[in-house]
Amino acid sequence: MDVLLHEINFNFVEELKKKIGLDYNRLSRMSIVEEGAVKMAFELYGMLAGNVSPMTGENVKPAYGGEEEAFLRKVVTPIYNVIAKEAARSKKGRSKHSQWRNYDDLNEYFWSADCFRLGWPMRADADFFCLPSENSFFDKSNVSIEY
């Protein structure tokens, strides 16, 4: 059964790669990324297939919850709040780039293996969601450095 499940997941991920054009070969070299991608791909499959498990035939709830507007409240809103706070820290572009994370920094984060530290469903206590103190600067890896 485990071999069959792995084969189903692998085949689904391969098809998903073709359909949405992910550079999956680069990402799959990292086992943590592959594992996370398989979980998210399986959940995406559930949403696209009407939330029905191909193994059991039962409805599958998303990892972030099945209640009304759960994706908006638990995924989109926390990311939006980080972006809004960083935009405020920019002081309309007058702050030094090292004092806030701009669009490019956030975009690079979501294309890096570090993004998978957020977990799935996302952990609200992840470093990404914590704003540093006013005396902090960011290095290129988005790690805050106190001065």
From TrEMBL:
Listed GO CC annotations: plasma membrane
Entries under Pfam families matching the protein: FKS1_dom1 (PF14288)
SMART domains: FKS1_dom1
InterPro entries: FKS1-like_dom1 (IPR026899)
Residue ranges constituting the 1,3-beta-glucan synthase component FKS1-like domain according to the UniProt record: 40-123
Gene Ontology molecular function: glucosyltransferase activity
Name this protein carries in UniProt: 1,3-beta-glucan synthase component FKS1-like domain-containing protein
Organism: Phaseolus vulgaris
Lineage of the organism: Eukaryota, Viridiplantae, Streptophyta, Embryophyta, Tracheophyta
